[in-house]
Structures are given as C-alpha cells and as structure tokens.
Amino acid sequence: MPNPFHLAVQVRDLEEARGFYGELLGCPEGRSSDTWVDFNLFGHQFVCHLNPALGNGAPAVHHNSVDGHGVPVPHFGVVLEMADWEALVDRLTAAGVRFEIEPYIRFQGEPGEQATMFFFDPSGNALEFKAFRDIAGQLFAT
C-alpha cells in the first residue's frame, strides 16, 4: 500500500460528521474524543475536528474553472478504482446528495481522462472523488 495521507478538517457537529462519513460514505470509525473523530477514508487517516463556531456557516470556498466546471477550492477526496467510484455514485445518488459537480468523465479522450464528482459535507467541506481506468498510467499523465 502506498503511504496513506493524514488529513484533518473542521466540522460543526461530530454526530453529523459520523452520519455523513461513517454511515453514508462507509468510512469505519477509529479513535475519538469529545472534540474529534478519526475515520478510515479508503485507507487514509481522516480526522474531523469539532469547531462549533462554524454553526450553519461553512469554510470559505473559491471556484476555479477546470474542464468547463467551477471546481471548489479547497477540496479533498480519494482516487478510487472505477467500480468503487461507480458504487459510491450510486450510494450518494440514492441518498439524495446534492452534487456541486455531477458525476461525469473529465478530459474525455485526453491523457488523464478521469471520472469525477464534487459534493459538500454537512459542514461545507468540499470533496472530490475520482477514478481512472488505469490509475498507475493515468493519474499523472500529461
């Protein structure tokens, strides 16, 4: 396994984060306290830290144009195998998740062709999940 990353984000409510990341996305929960929760985000250590000051607000997000879409920045996510990405699309669609950028194939017919989708967690953190038919050959294709 490649080196897993560690990422920590702020959330407005830990139970809400448990429902979103644990139940909806299917990320097993690891250690936790009253102010943070570790999740296994597809093999990576992902931590939600409580920031009640977020309230109903969201972290600042900017949009940059990529392939004709306004991509939210900052964002994070995981590169998945295509079958796992398709299963996640089905699960999110069935749950009624509102996509910022609907699932589609980006850079079609070009090096780096990829399936991608963007959506926000309940605290306003932007997520992108993507997949390639050949991760090793396409992830850093130019």
Describe this entry's structure for a reader.
The protein has a four-stranded mixed β-sheet with strand order 1-4-3-2, covered by helices on one side. It has a four-stranded mixed β-sheet with strand order 7-10-9-8. A two-stranded antiparallel ribbon has the order 5-6. The chain is globular and about 45 Å long. A hairpin with a 2-residue loop joins β3 and β4 (about 45-50). The chain is an alpha+beta fold and about 140 residues long. It folds into two domains: about 5-55, 2,3-Dihydroxybiphenyl 1,2-Dioxygenase, domain 1, CATH 3.10.180; about 60-140, 2,3-Dihydroxybiphenyl 1,2-Dioxygenase, domain 1 (Roll), CATH 3.10.180.10. About 20% of the residues are buried. It contains three helices and ten strands. Pfam families: Glyoxalase. InterPro entries: Glyas_Bleomycin-R_OHBP_Dase, Glyas_Fos-R_dOase_dom, VOC_core. This is VOC family protein.
Strand content: 35-45%
Looking at CATH, the homologous superfamily of the largest domain is 2,3-Dihydroxybiphenyl 1,2-Dioxygenase, domain 1
Give the overall shape. Answer: globular
Count of DSSP-assigned helices: 3
The helix/strand series, from N terminus to C terminus, equals EHEEEEEEHEEEH
Q: What structural class do the secondary elements suggest? A: alpha+beta
Regarding CATH, which class of the largest domain? Alpha Beta
Q: Give the helix proportion (percent range).
A: 10-25%
Q: Radius of gyration, rounded? A: 15 Å
Would you count the extended β strands for me? Answer: 10
Query: Mean pLDDT, as a whole number?
Result: 94
Poorly predicted runs of 5 or more residues: none
Question: So what's the oligomer here?
Answer: single chain
